[in-house]
Amino acid sequence: MADQKDWLGVVRNTLLTRAADHLQHQSQKQLDQDGREVKADDSNQRYDHNDLTEVNFFLAHNLTVLKQEVNNLKLQITETHKELMHAKSHTDQLEMEAQDRHEDPDRIETQKKIHKLQRALTAAQQGEQLEKAAREDLEK
């Protein structure tokens, strides 16, 4: 049992790491060609240690590249999410400012109309009081 664990540790820590390092320097075209060659082989053929090691290198490299791509995509998603949240916050702020700008002229215009009407009402009330006083004076 200990021998099996030791062997798995060597494979995981040494062979796969070396395989990944070796395969990272191959182009995608080379890797694809190697994969096609493996697929084209007769499935009844027995593979020797070197062939199986190459397959492991190929798989290890692809896994390493995929892991890097996944990590890069995760970073891009995180950055895009941050940018989206910032843009949404900025948009909300601009909408509030625009709403305030639209409300202010209306409010100011409405206040002007109210003041004008209040002055007119006051003037009319004063005029009514003057007329009433003048009628009372005439009636006396």
From TrEMBL:
Residues 31-47, 129-140 have a biased composition (Basic and acidic residues). Residues 25-47, 121-140 are annotated as: Disordered. This is Uncharacterized protein. It comes from Anabarilius grahami.
